[in-house]
Design a protein that fits this description.
Layout lengths: L15 H5 L5 H6 L5 H19 L12 H16 L3 H15 L3 H7 L9 H9 L5 H17 L8 H10 L10 H12 L3 H9 L2 H12 L4 H15 L2 H9 L2 H11 L4 H17 L3 H7 L2 H9 L6 H21 L2 H10 L6 H4 L1 H7 L5 H13 L8 H17 L3 H7 L2 H7 L6 H15 L2 H11 L1
Helix pairs in contact: 3-4, 4-5, 5-8, 6-8, 7-8, 8-10, 9-10, 10-13, 12-13, 12-14, 12-15, 13-16, 15-16, 15-17, 15-18, 16-19, 17-19, 18-19, 23-24, 24-27, 26-27
């Protein structure tokens, strides 16, 4: 059987500095009437000024109003984007614009001005996003579009292609294997600042894509963690966004960022603001935040010194909200609802001695409904996850130990046999909790306490 040839690797993405060092033959493009002579002069003049600034290490004043030469150079670069398709020229035009804008929304609005009768700068940049084989142009165009969004007062209907591009970078087939997700989440963080577009982006499923980025960036990629946290915070300000974010595991992902935030103040601030907003909007997020250790992470971070008082305020709000959620999560109604849902996890009731001391006997209510559900979780036909099996075994062990007639009830329900089948389960956590459950069903409470004391 013939072996198919290995496809060539994608071309390497040039750096911004290397593109800005290019000597593009602008006169050739002027000779072909693609750009004008004055535009060539403006491009050369802006290039010399930018190179002199970089050589002098002068990056100050980037928030200042653009100079007339910068405005003329930007207009000429937009003319290149309108008329030229060659990679070297398009990449240089985008790089020079991005270098001049420098992420400033005010400078983006001042420099990216439409020419009479020509496509808008936003349309030209969106055209660059469609250069599927040219990641450099996509990345620079996204940076410029993000700056335009940040500098605009409200949303715009023509942002849809940019939204599509940003969401695609967080999906299963991004345009670059490593740089697409950071670029996409940075774009979302800018787009979501506009209240007019926030609900529409939430409706497109943006919230379901963020937790994976948050978990991947936690402790490893501070800028991506910051952008993803900002996007999560803004989405959590909408009801649909908050519900979708929680359903996708947003609370646990933000807790992971807090645990890995370290000394990055802006990351801690953004993640705590996002988690606080999510906890306020979605009561269901409380149990997840408790189980993922968000409260402990907030307390640990509060022990550090922070220059920004907003960080302390946001962390305190998270700590208080998680504490309140912990009390609520340990209620009998919350426990009963979780067991009946079949989605068992290590939520607070399962590990709280006080909860079991107060409520163990209630498992007999309604004809032992919850005991029967927990035993059914152990049935192979239920196809339960290892997590659910471990939690169910733990609960049955507590029931057997704390309810005087619990062992008899479990014997009638064949709970011991169900537990013994799990002693050979491949997951060690399941085996450990199954052994504790079987011992609890076989041995009396006094004998179990003696064995536990000896083991200690």
């Amino acid at each position: 059987m013939a072996t198919l040839p290995t496809p060539p690797p994608p071309p390497a993405t040039p750096s911004l500095a290397s593109v800005l060092r290019r000597d593009v033959p602008w006169e050739t493009y002027a000779g072909a009437s693609l750009i004008s002579g004055p535009e060539v002069v403006a491009l050369r003049k802006a290039d010399r000024a930018a190179k002199a600034r970089r050589a002098a290490g002068d990056d100050g004043g980037r928030a200042a109003a653009p100079t007339p030469d910068e405005v003329a150079g930007a207009a000429a670069a937009l003319a290149v984007l309108r008329a030229v398709t060659k990679d070297d020229a398009v990449q240089y035009a985008l790089a020079s614009l991005d270098d001049a804008v420098c992420g400033s929304g005010a400078r983006a609005v001042a420099l990216l001005k439409p020419a009479p009768g020509a496509p808008s700068p936003k349309a030209l940049l969106q055209r660059a996003l469609a250069r599927s084989a040219d990641w450099f142009s996509q990345e620079r165009a996204a940076s410029l579009l993000g700056a335009l969004c940040a500098g605009s007062d409200g949303g715009a209907d023509d942002d849809a292609p940019f939204v599509d591009w940003a969401l695609a970078q967080l999906g299963p087939r991004p345009n670059h294997p490593t740089r697409a997700a950071p670029a996409g989440v940075a774009a979302l963080a800018k787009l979501l600042r506009n209240r007019d577009t926030r609900a529409a982006i939430a409706a497109r499923g943006a919230a379901s894509l963020l937790p994976r980025v948050l978990r991947g960036a936690a402790g490893a990629a501070p800028q991506a963690a910051y952008d993803a946290s900002v996007a999560a915070w803004l989405l959590a300000l909408t009801q649909e966004g908050a519900e979708s974010l929680e359903a996708a595991g947003g609370a646990a992902a933000l807790a992971a960022v807090l645990r890995g935030g370290g000394a990055k103040e802006k990351v801690v601030r953004a993640a705590s603001l996002a988690l606080g907003a999510l906890l306020a909007a979605s009561p269901a997020a409380g149990a997840s935040a408790v189980a993922s250790g968000a409260g402990r992470a907030a307390e640990s971070l509060l022990a550090q010194a922070w220059e920004d008082g907003d960080v302390v305020e946001a962390l305190t709000a998270v700590k208080d909200a998680v504490a309140a959620a912990s009390l609520s999560a340990c209620s009998w109604d919350a426990y009963r609802a979780e067991v009946l849902s079949g989605r068992l996890a290590w939520s607070p009731p399962h590990t709280s001695d006080a909860f079991w001391a107060a409520h163990a006997g209630k498992l007999d209510d309604r004809g032992g409904q919850l005991v029967r559900v927990l035993v059914r979780v152990l049935d192979p036909a239920a196809a339960s996850t290892p997590l659910a099996l471990a939690v169910a075994c733990s609960d049955l062990a507590r029931y057997a130990a704390l309810v005087p007639h619990g062992r008899s009830v479990l014997a009638d329900l064949h709970g011991k046999e169900a537990g013994m089948r799990l002693l050979a389960h491949p997951d060690p956590d399941v085996r450990r909790h199954a052994l504790a459950a079987v011992q609890g069903m076989v041995l009396g409470r006094d004998r179990m306490q003696y064995l536990n004391a000896v083991g200690a």
